[in-house]
Design brief:
single chain; alpha/beta; TIM Barrel; two-stranded antiparallel sheet; binds S-adenosyl-L-homocysteine; binds iron/sulfur cluster
């Protein structure tokens, strides 16, 4: 039996459509949206909707289609939740409480077709895109267990957001319009899908863009990230510049430090040259161990410091990823490891045909 359709993820016009048999559908859609996008899942509690409307909705729809299947908490307050959207294909989201704010990391696909050599998600293959409702549903699942309001969202969980462009953009618009989150508090991380970066620049949504660069040399980036064969570093940088020019926002370059592969000083120097001249930030991410069969290792702390100091001495704004929830393998971008092999694997890792 197909899953009952969910209302979360629908915009006002779509909600009015779902309510078309009710009296005054536009008003009812407004009332329903207020409840749905405050995280209410029980139609009975939507007290300003007439009882017959609530009943009719309950017969045909669920508020959110997400089913939580597992929850793991670490002692630093990070909570990882495993959920599915009715088809048993699991994906993960993570609650990240900090002293000054609460953030969450959301998945955009079940698996990922990009096949990056260092990434547990990529190594597990790809199953399907998530809908806008499934993306928002992760936020509300996490909000229901967070004592404080989640004010920041990062699209850095499983999957490549810009390969699921329409649903990701729809979810961002709903976060902005219905949940009341500022686009400035929303970060989308991409492997570098150049035409979609350009399209995003024109959406009039000043979200924060993070680009996973990870190497300054095309040969190395080709071997780590097959997407580089399609859009090499120079094209990614020019799309990043366009994004900055169109939105007035800084771009973050994420830079993964893998011992002897990406952490060489000449790459730190190249990186400084590459990012000079436009507003940007480099976020260093020491490799988190994933069994890739390639023997990748996290560099020693002294080497990470050396890489960082080189960048700083060349005038680059540098941060280092705050690492949280290590013991529950909750770091964003490598969420699939704990349940590897559970995807349907309808496509194999690194299926670049999805880019054509
Ligand atoms: N597909 C998007 C977003 C999800 S991955 C992207 O690639 O940007 C989020 C981040 O986690 C990316 O920067 C990714 O390169 C990083 N990541 C993946 N595997 C990792 C690992 N083993 N250790 C540290 N960071 C990793
Ligand atoms: Fe996909 Fe990002 Fe992992 Fe690459 S790093 S395989 S793009 S999730």
């Amino acid at each position: 039996m197909p899953p009952t359709p969910a209302l979360l993820g629908l915009d006002r016009a779509e909600l009015a459509e779902a309510l078309s048999s009710a009296d005054r559908p536009a008003l009812r859609a407004r009332q329903l949206a207020r409840w749905l996008y405050a995280g209410e899942t029980d139609f009975e509690k939507m007290s300003d909707l007439p009882a017959d409307v609530r009943e009719a909705l309950g017969e045909r729809y669920v508020a959110s289609g997400l089913v939580e299947t597992r929850r793991v908490e670490s002692e630093d307050g990070v909570v990882k939740v495993l959920a599915h959207g009715g088809d048993e294909e699991s994906f993960e989201c993570v609650l990240l409480p900090y002293a000054d704010r609460v953030s969450c990391c959301l998945s955009t696909q079940v698996g990922c077709p990009m096949g990056c050599a260092f990434c547990a998600t990529g190594l597990g293959g790809f199953d399907r895109n998530l809908s806008a409702g499934e993306i928002l549903g992760q936020y509300f699942l996490l909000q229901s267990i967070s004592p404080r309001r989640i004010s920041h969202v990062v699209y850095m969980g499983m999957g490549e957001p810009l390969l699921n462009y329409p649903e990701v953009v729809k979810s961002i618009r709903l976060f902005k319009q219905e949940v009341g989150l500022s686009p400035r508090h929303i970060t989308v991380s991409t492997v570098g899908i150049v035409p979609r970066i350009r399209e995003l620049a024109q959406e009039n949504l000043p979200i924060h863009l993070a680009i996973s660069l990870h190497s300054t040399k095309d040969e190395i980036r080709n071997s780590l990230m097959p997407v580089n064969q399609k859009w090499p570093i120079s094209e990614v940088l020019s799309a990043a510049k366009e994004y900055v020019n169109a939105t007035g926002r800084k771009v973050t370059f994420e830079y993964l430090l893998i011992e002897g592969v990406t952490d060489t000083i000449d790459q730190a120097e190249d990186l400084a040259t590459m990012v000079r001249g436009f507003p940007s930030l480099v976020n260093l991410i020491p490799f988190n161990y994933v069994s890739t069969g390639q023997g990748f290792k996290r560099p020693a702390p002294s080497r990470i410091t050396q890489f960082r100091r080189t960048l700083e001495s060349l005038g680059v704004n540098v941060t280092q990823r705050r690492e949280r929830g290590h013991r529950i393998a909750a770091a964003c971008g490598q969420l699939a490891g704990v349940h590897g092999g559970r995807f349907a694997r309808r496509r194999s890792p690194s299926d670049l045909s999805v880019l054509s």
